Amino acid sequence: MLGLTDRAFAFRTFGVPSSQAPVLPSNALPPFVDPLPVLKKHTPFAMHGKTSLYRMRMTEFHQQLHSHLPATKLWGYEAQYPGPVIEAMRGEPVEIHWENHLPTTHIFNVDPRIHGAMPPAPVVRTVPHLHGSRTASYSDGLPENWFVPGQAVTYYYPNDQQAAPLWYHDHAVGITRLNVYAGMSGFYLLRDAQELAMNLPSGKYEVPLILQDRNLDEGGQLVYDPTNDDGKHLPGGVWGPEFFGNQAVVNGAVCPYFSVEPTQYRLRMLNAANSRFFHLYFNLAEHPTDIPSLHKFHQIGSDGGLLSSPVVMEKVLLAPAERADVIIDFAGLEGKTVTLSNNATSPFPGWANLTSEYAPLSSLMQFKVTVPASSNRTFSLPPSISVPRIDPSQAVVTRDFVLVERMDAQGRSQGVRINNRGYDDPVTEFPKLGTIEKWRFINTTEDAHPMHLHLVQYQIVERQGFNPVAYALGKLQMVGPPRPPAANEAGWKDTAVVNPAETLTIAIKFEGFTGRYVYHCHMLEHEDNDMMRPFEVT
After folding, report:
1. Helices marked H in 442-482 — which ranges?
2. Angle 385-388-392 (CA atoms, 0-180°, nearest 5)?
3. 22 preceded by cis ω (within 30°)?
């Protein structure tokens, strides 16, 4: 690590959080007036054998999110929001020198009561995590392995896994929600020979899409204003269980448009929002209030790579951190506009809410089929392939993880835990390298939770409901038959949703490395307080 000459800022005094600036209304900015930013690709500065060497600098910078607003102050990688795309090949390692050049004052007020953010921890800390990668513990980006401005680390990624849409983001304990919201995320697309041999849309016809939500003030600056479960906003710098922005941001632009040719495109979609779920569909209707006119598409892959065969879809649900690899054909739609629409409630699934506390983000971006076809080239859907299956009957152990929300006397959330343990409680899971385990998540809360494991890609075994009244009396009483995963979830996953009053069972083979890793809810507000636990592969 590079040392600091002055660490005095680490012991700064925490003052009273400042008040938040007023948030722009959701209809204050005209949508679909700015083009979709095409994410830039990062290039290595050198090669060491087959290993590509990258430098990735974390800095504060300004970037315009909408043409009607001034530039926004952001944090990000290589002065870009989102960060640049890294493309890698299976079997060809990547080494990244992550450098923290951020200021010592955070963009947002930090709640010093949250685990990991309590003094004397410095308010500005970062640690990058390559989400979905099979990586040694040292290079995994464990939340407690943060480093401060003026320091750097070098992480090694062997890329010894199938092609997949991985992504990188900050993971510093206690402030992940703030650092990611400030702009610290980006795509890492892993390729392999099998994928490259397919006639999939490529080049300008392959488009990474990072989907997020943000609140902005009239000066174009980010406002982070979380709420309680009842939708009431909290003072600046106070942790809240939920955050839902009222502006849809795609690739760093508010409600952009993308001009396309009447041909097939491959969209690599990532939900990188803090807490918001997206239930996405391609809509030919002119207005959000019109009856939807759905344009079907094919999902060809999920978090961990290609599915065994393409799945015809009308809608796809993406929880925070989930990815969908889809092919959409705009042929025959010349002159038309297709809106990427969303009808997920916030919070999700909202079964317990009689009225919505948050306005929906009904439209994220538009595809305008206005570009003449530039060639006669046609693309293909991927052929059926063999996706190895984990046999759940070979599991050496089944572990239960109960998701519980802690409430105060006024019924307000004080954080969510797994098995009533916090992050710093002793490790209770020690899977053995090379073995298969079944993990069952039991959700007693009113929110759906996207559960993510580091190191591994897993497979969904089943979901099944349970009786929450009986569970409150100490009995896990299952309701209805077990439900196998939907076709578009039947491949490799690293993040999967468990709904309220439901169990999610996954099968995992622990491969690659021994050492310490973590599992957690990928709603960043929950992860920070305190819905994250370590495990150690032995």
Report:
1. 468-472
2. 145
3. no
Q: Across the strands, what pairs with 502? A: 443, 465
Among residues 122, 107, 54, 113, the alpha carbon closest in space to that of 84 is found at 54
Q: What is the tens place of the pLDDT at every residue in 306-361?
A: 999 999 999 999 999 999 999 999 999 999 999 999 999 999 997 766 566 787 89
Contacts with 286 (C-beta within 8 Å, 6 or more apart), sequence order? 337
Residue with tokens 């087959």: 50
Cβ-contact 185, 273 below 8 angstroms: no
**Exposure pattern of 14-39 as b/e (b: 16+ CB <10 Å)?**
eeebeebbebbebeebebbebebbeb
Bridge partners of 250? 211, 253
Cβ-contact 128, 104 below 8 angstroms: no
Token pair, residue 5, equals 């000459």
Rounded-to-integer distance, Cα 249 and Cα 238, Å: 24
Structural domains in the chain, CATH included, are 32-196 (2.60.40.420), 203-369 (2.60.40.420), 392-537 (2.60.40.420)
pLDDT of residue 376: 80
pLDDT, tens digit (0-9, with 9 covering 90-100), for 153-162: 999 999 999 9
Average pLDDT rounded to a whole number, residues 136-143: 98
pTM of the model: 0.95
